[in-house]
């Protein structure tokens, strides 16, 4: 049990790296101080819960998968798509299996199950979580574009093309139609 707790504590420190590791695709686009992987995963989890509940799925399961969908990047980093063309990264399930060595079996099963389900892309919740990943990227691209970064269209286009759910597509259309601070104007105006 002591070794399991030591392994689990190590995993918790390892996952903390996601707060420091930056999303590298944004560096390619010219964003000097891009969001962290943890920043991305947090909003993706919220988006996944929203999409899932509107699509008739389990919002908690979709959000849970989103929290772990990029956890492997503590070991393989966030390789931009242009880099993936030249590298053969380990499968996310394999990285997760390595990350789970030495942690209590219930924790390992829980995390491995979430990552496996996400990567299988079969359950409604996994589809919603994957849409949330893409929609979060689209929202971030729109925000960066409004901040003056001009190279965002490829991220917007690829995110739009990857969306599968009706809710994800509708949210993307609305995000592209409205400004990122329009919600605040409505609040201030009492709408």
Word description of this protein:
- The protein has helices spanning 2-16, 24-28, 37-55, 59-68, 73-76, 81-84, 92-99, 105-120, 124-146, 153-162, 166-177, 182-188.
- The protein has 191 residues and is an all-alpha fold.
- The longest helix is centred in the last third of the chain and has 23 residues, at 124-146.
- The N and C termini lie far apart (55 Å).
Unreliable residue runs:
none
Cα shape: globular
Count of runs of 4 or more consecutive helical residues = 12
Give the distance, in angstroms, between the N- and C-terminal Cα atoms: 55 Å
Q: List SSEs in N-to-C order.
A: HHHHHHHHHHHH
Roughly what percent helix?
Answer: 55-70%
> Which percent band covers the strand fraction?
under 5%
Largest sheet: none
From the helix content, strand content and strand pairing, which structural class follows? mainly alpha
Mean pLDDT across every amino acid position = 96
Radius of gyration: 18 Å
> How many beta-strand runs?
0
Observed structural traits:
single chain; 191 residues; mainly alpha; 12 helices; globular
Strand and helix layout:
Elements lengths: L1 H15 L7 H5 L8 H19 L3 H10 L4 H4 L4 H4 L7 H8 L5 H16 L3 H23 L6 H10 L3 H12 L4 H7 L3
Q: Can you summarize this structure?
A:
The protein has 191 residues and is mainly α. The chain has twelve helices and no strands.
